[in-house]
Amino acid sequence: MVSNTIFNKQNIKNALFVIGGSLISAIGVNMFLINAKLFGSGLSGIAILVQYASNFPAGYTVLLGNIPLILLSYNKLNKRFTIYSTLGTLSLAIFLVLTQHLTSIISVNDTLLLCVYGGILTGAGHGIAYANHGSEGGMDIVAMLVKKSYDSFNVGQLGFFVNCVIVFIGMLLNGITPALYTLMSIYIAGIITDKMIHGLSRKMVLLIITDKEQEVCNYIEQYKYHGVAILEGKALKGNKRNLIYCIVHVSRLPSLKFGVQKIDNNVLISILDASAVDGRGFSTSIL
Question: In 3D, which of 233, 211, 229, 232 has the Cα closest to residue 220?
């Protein structure tokens, strides 16, 4: 029974995406960032600097540095996040070692190009892991621990401070030019991570006004669009006018709109972004 719960389709899908995200991040690091002698953010950035200074593989540093963080996560955070983060950490460490040879594949001398693509790939990998209830360890776990203990604490400022320290150390070791390119890469990675997290789990709120209320409701129930309710109201002239309130994943929005408009050509649909949705058929938050 427990085995069936652990190895259900959703958990397997999340695990595969976390592993895939770690692979993408490792390719971004070895094929682009290290190729340009740049580094990165958080623990991965420290691991790359250690590799530059001592030739000690970044994957091993990532693994060793995350051991105490994983233990803290196990004691302080929920088990699901810890399991997926452990999987992400192990995957990233292994892939960083296995993809080391990719550094020599691309012979491009354009540091800006390598910086941009390195930021895109590391940000995408990070975002994929995060959107599937896990992480690649390092600052992600620290951020979750701080956020849980001090909800009002600005985690972004903590991450910015840590990255500034890493970039400063990198500047002392490699010079100011790689440090400035690294800052650009970190910024790009942050944007891509945010886009991946919100893009993969984006939800929309629909407010529907229709004369064929019951038919539309039946259609929504038939196709199992979650988060549906009827809001009682009245029109400007005082007539009773109900609103159909519906929350839907962005990937299912076109089919829902098409179906509703097919039922009522004169339907009015207002579509809003949902900043966060939890429960009742939707994925729960990372913690």
Answer: 229
At a CB cut-off of 8 Å and minimum separation 6, what does 96 contact? 26, 29, 30, 47, 57, 58, 59, 62
Taking the C-alpha atoms of residue 128 and residue 135, their distance in angstroms, rounded to an integer, is 9
Whole-structure pTM value = 0.73
Spell out, as residue ranges, where the chain has pLDDT lower than 70: 1-7, 151-158, 198-201, 223-227, 235-238, 251, 275-287
Phi, psi of 276 (to 5 degrees): -160, 140
Angle, vertex CA 169, rays to CA 167 and CA 172, nearest 5: 110
Q: Which residues pair with 208 in a beta bridge?
A: 244, 269
DSSP 8-state code for residue 102: G
The rounded distance, in Å, linking the Cα atoms of 182 and 168 is 11
pLDDT of residue 233: 73
Q: What is the DSSP letter of 132?
A: T
The residues, ordered by sequence, that sit 6+ positions from 105 with a Cβ below 8 Å of its Cβ are: 31
Which residues partner with 124 through β-bridges? none
Query: How many angstroms separate the CA atoms of 166 and 76, rounded?
Result: 26
Strands of the sheet with 203-209, listed across from one edge = 228-231, 243-249, 203-209, 268-274
Give the long-range contacts of residues 100-103, CB within 8 A, separation 24 or more.
Answer: 100/30, 100/57, 102/27, 102/30, 102/31, 103/30, 103/31, 103/34, 103/35
Nearest CA to 85 out of 23, 133, 26 is that of 133
- Cβ within 8 Å of residue 66, ≥6 positions away: 43, 89, 93, 137, 138, 141
Spatial separation of the C-alpha atoms in residues 36 and 112, rounded to whole Å: 9
